[in-house]
Amino acid sequence: MSLFCGTACRRKSFLCYRLLSTFVTKTRYLFELKEDDDACKKAQQTGAFYLFHSLAPLLQKSEHQYLAPKHSLLELERLLGKLGQDTQRIEDSVLIGCSEQQEAWFALDLGLNSSSSINASLQKSEMEKELKGSFIELRKALFQLNVKDASLLSTAQALLHWHGAHQFCSRSGQPTKKNMAGSKRMCPSNEIIYYPQMAPVVITLVSDGTRCLLARQSSFPKGMYSALAGFCDIDPGELERIRSSSLVQL
Ligand SMILES: [Zn+2]
């Protein structure tokens, strides 16, 4: 019995170590790509791209679920060429993660006006036909995606949205420029660097032990419910006071 327990514990420790080791390796690799534009551009050669149109991801329907197709750089260049678009807009893509084998994953919105391209929005239906999929609002498709894709596409959508909303410097009004990975934007005239904001969120699920309080809107897809949530407005500096009081209690 103790031999069995010892073996199980060693196996568990090994798995934990392996998970941690993989996480650290991936984090280091992503950090390198965020800091080094040349390394990031190189990673695009062997990477994969998730496509969006006006923040709606490209999805393919497979029975009762959605799949998020990935495209190689070559496929993407071919598609843009076929649609008569400038391949330069690939530089608008943002890094969203990588596989254990260090295949870098990027997201590109083909529906937003690009700062690095003179092309206007591509024709959505034409692209859907070429890509054999549909651009679907993420919230509506979220529960029909697997956990990995749902998480990755949510990250991608948030980052693409942030870039769309931070095209200009708030100090000088000049256009900002993103780095290759899209982990930051810089104003060339006064060198202010902008980073995507983190928005800490807490959601509370009301439960009586066996049941949860849920609600749904008539616009929700069938079977989709939501925990009741709201926003708590805090004064500037309040968060700092909360942090300080937590530190005192510790
Ligand atoms: Zn500026």
Shape: globular
Largest sheet: 6 strands, mixed
Give the low-pLDDT segments. Answer: 114-121
Helix content: 25-40%
Distance between the termini: 41 Å
Ligand types: zinc ion
Judged by helices, strands and strand pairing, the structural class is alpha+beta
Strand fraction: 15-25%
Total tally of structural domains: 1
Number of discrete helical segments: 7
Radius of gyration equals 22 Å
Mean pLDDT: 84
Number of strands: 11
Question: Which sequence of SSEs, written as H and E, runs from N to C?
Answer: HHEEEHEEHEHHEEEEEH
Give an account of the 3D structure.
- The protein has 250 residues and is α+β, with helices and mostly antiparallel strands.
- The protein has one domain.
- Helix content is 39%, strand content 16%.
- It has seven helices and eleven strands.
- The strands form three sheets. Strands 1, 2, 3, 4, 5 and 6 form a six-stranded mixed β-sheet that branches. A three-stranded antiparallel β-sheet has the order 7-8-9, with no helix packed on it.
- Strand 8 and strand 9 form a beta hairpin.
- The chain is globular, with a radius of gyration of 22 Å.
- About 3% of the residues have low confidence.
- The site of zinc ion has 8 residues, from loops.
